[in-house]
Amino acid sequence: MITQTTDILQMLLLSYFNSKFSPNTKKSYFLGELELDKKIAMAKGTRYRSWATIAPNWYANTAISRPHMEFVNKPKKTYQKLVKLISATTQKNLREIDKIYREKITSCVEIIRDIFNEPDANVIFESNGTMALAFIRALSGAEGQKVISTSDMGRIAGLALQGQDTSIAKEDFKQQIGLFSPSGKLDKIIHSQYFEVDLYNEDRPKTIDQICIELFETVKQEKPKLVIVPQVSRTGIKLPVEKIGRFIKQINRQQGLSIFFAVDGAQAIGRSNSEDLKKPLKYCDAYFFVGQKALGSMTLAAIMVKSDFVKNNAKSLINSSITPRLCCYKFFELPTEIKSFMQKRGGNFAISLPEIESLDLSLRAFYQRGEGGTFKERRKYQISRTIKINSFIVSELSKIRGIKVFTTTEDTPLSPSIIIFTVIEGNGVGAETLRQKLQELHSPITFAPIYQRPILRIGLSELREQDINYLITSIKKIVHCKK
Description:
By secondary structure, this protein is of the alpha/beta class. The protein has two domains: 105-366, Type I PLP-dependent aspartate aminotransferase-like (Major domain) (Aspartate Aminotransferase, domain 2, 3-Layer(aba) Sandwich), CATH 3.40.640; 375-479, Aspartate Aminotransferase, domain 1. Helix content is 42%, strand content 11%. It has 19 helices and twelve strands. It starts with a helix and ends with a helix.
């Protein structure tokens, strides 16, 4: 018990005193970076106004600039309590630290299993979504093997899946979100073993049938080691992950392959109904999501795999070049050989407890949000509210000459909490210009950065009220003309 507690204390010390909660860290960073010099802020992709003034007009991922306070206050108090306990390392304090650590992690694992109806899932935490992708690549044994994914997953997801370890995994890694500046050239395919199925035809989303045909043909031809697709893409396209999973199982069985199938739920969690989230491990080998996209928590990723999968794939994980840079930590069920290996590495083994508690709180808020006696009823209620807001915005945008709105159809279903549109060329205002002009307003309107195609993305939040009328009026003024 004492040895185990000492290991936990070592992880806490390494983790907490290098976390956002360091006593020497300014409060502004704890709440998300705030740069008062507008030019510097625009270059760095950070805020230059207080959160209170920009929150009603924030349509990027819900917590990418700052986590919601309801998911930060309790973790901060937990951290402060642990600092006091660590300052006097008595046996009593060590036992209390051990208890707090176990309770917080167990609570988060339990709510994840409840939401996804996966009571036996092995839950692993990783520092962010990009590193979760790298972990899945390592676990699947895909290093040096063929990997197939899709476009529209995220600006640096492809780098993780192509094994660009030095580009994405550094101890001081910070993702430049580029909210104010044009997106960088991070979408290039630079590895001959990486294949990407495009979700778009020129400037419009493909149908689900088109996506599946192209994906299935690519899998048949390339016979990859890993296939990973988003359940909901960055611009809201809903992929038929169960259908894809059945196909992967079938080709594995028929051709004696061992293709690992993973699903990226980063944009799905916080936006989907209960049925779409139910039992993902029935059709995939790994399912992961993050807290900062739609849930509003601090940055953290959670990966679900079948209960014995990590143990059975320990060799692949240990032998991967990315493993020394991973921060994954699984409490209780991590196989001994992996745990020992990771403990020898030191600091990267620990995931800061405040992030885990923040994710736990955001998931429980998501689970309880809405009206109804069951999770299914509450999600139905919340989504019906989102659909009404979506319909109003789509209707108003469609009246503006030069604006092309993409709407959900049976052939191409879109998430109701993500609205996508573009500005038709020749109108005098392009998509990027419109995005920048909205950001330059006295009360700035913030969209996510444009990526791969000139598609603008409006993210609707369940966590706060958004000033929809100001959004529509501002777009009309900038684009000028009405139909």
